[in-house]
Structure formats: structure tokens, C-alpha cells
Amino acid sequence: EGxxxxxxxxxxxxxxxxxxxxxxxxxxxxxxxxxNTAGGAFLTIQKALNVAASLDCSTFNLTIQVAxxxxxxxxxxPAMLGSGTFTLxxxxxxxxxxxxxxxxxxxISANDAGTxxxxxxxxxxxxxxxxxxxxxRTTVNFGFIDFGACAGAHQLFVQQGAxxxxxxxxxxxxxxxxxxxxxxxxxxxxxxNLTFTITSGNKTWAIFAYAATGNIYSGGMTFTLSGVTVxxxxxxxxxxxxxxxSGGGANYFPGNVAxxxxxxxxxx
Length: 268
Hints:
This protein starts with 18 loop residues before the first strand and ends with a strand. The chain has one helix at about 45-55, and strands spanning about 20-25, 60-65, 70, 75, 85-90, 100-105, 110, 115-125, 130-135, 140-145, 155-160, 165, 170, 180-185, 190, 195-200, 205-210, 215, 220-225, 230-240, 240-245, 260, 265. By secondary structure, it is mainly β. It has a 15-stranded parallel β-sheet that branches. An eight-stranded parallel β-sheet has the order 4-7-9-11-14-17-20-22. The relative contact order is 0.09. The protein has one helix and 23 strands.
């Protein structure tokens, strides 16, 4: 007799056009997410990400559009199926109007997530957690971000071969416990010919730019201090970490203490 083989119930919806999921503070995770109304939008960012991850996007683009407001939890970007673009977007004109305020976790994290674009948010954490954290097989393109108060050690934290690439100007309105940006274990941060404006009171970091077994490329950047002072070691490269500034010089990064290199680190 033949053996009956049960059919899988895990059948992905295959997109035939670009799709947008909406998230609003007056939405519900019981909604479909397909309409920008209280009765159509999701309530949480993570719900939208989870639903997106269940799709076969084929060649089409997937966007999660987050409305203005404050969201008490951020999200973990998932690996997606398809060759289109995947974008998490808030308010690119006024990022401070669309706030992700996470408690005890990263505001946005990406681990083995493929390639995503993240834009138009003010990010902040309380208790612990980085603002934007990427690890392993992940590329996060980010822009129009306001890096707010961070309870963790690093506002921008990239490690284990992941890439974080800035494509638009950003604001730094808060500080973290150790460094603004940190890369290690072959992580890579790239920011090129952009302006990062530091606002909202004086800032104190141990180090502004820190590379340990990782790489930072920060050529042609302008770090503008908007009526504030920065107390920090400008940079530190160690354990074969590299920081390249395209000849920006010793005072390229904000701070009041000279940078340093150690144990094979390089700064140029």
C-alpha cells in the first residue's frame, strides 16, 4: 500500500505587485496591515515585520510605512524571500516625529537579515540596548535617522561581518554609555560625504568612533556641533581594526581628546 504524505500547510503568498504594510499607534495587530487607517493598519512594527517575512516577494518591493507617533518597541529585521527591496520607513522629513523607544532591547536589530533600508526614525532605548545593531549576513542602509538617548554602550553597533551604510544626513540628539559607533569582528560601517548634526545639549562618550577587529570608512563627512560641546576620545582603532577618513586628519571626529591606535589598529 502507498503511504500518504501530508501536504505542507506552510504555503507562502507570492506577490504579484509591490506591497506596503502600514503601522499606526491607533492600529491593531488583528488587522491586515494593508490600509492606512485605524481599522487597517498594524499596531506594532514587529507584527508588520513578521507578516512580511511570511511572503514570497518574488521580484517586488516590500515597504513597511510607520506613521508618526511613539512606539514602545522596535523590531528585529527578518530575512526575506525575494529579489526586490525591503524598506522600513518612518518620517524622512521629520524623523523626530516617528519615535521608536525600546526598553531592554535594541530599537532596531538585524541578524542574518539580508539587505534592508531603514529611514525616518528617532531611535532611543531605556534600560539597555543599542539604537541600531546589525550582525552576521546583514546589510542595513540607513538615513534620516535621529540617534537619540541610548541606554546601551553603542548607538550604532555593527559586528560579525555585517554592514551598515549611511545614505542620507542624520542627527545625533542623544548619547550612549561608551561610543557613538562601534564595529568589531569584521563589522563594517560606511558613511561618505554626509552631514551628521549633533544637537540637544552637550554630549559625553568614552570614544566617538571605535573599531576593534572591524572597519569604519568615514570619508568626506561633516560632523556639525549645533551649539553643543562633545567630551570624548575622538577615535580608537585596535586589534587590527581600521578607521579610514580619506585624509580627514587627527581632529576629524568630534571630541576633546586625541584618538589612538593600538595592537595593529590603523587610522588614516
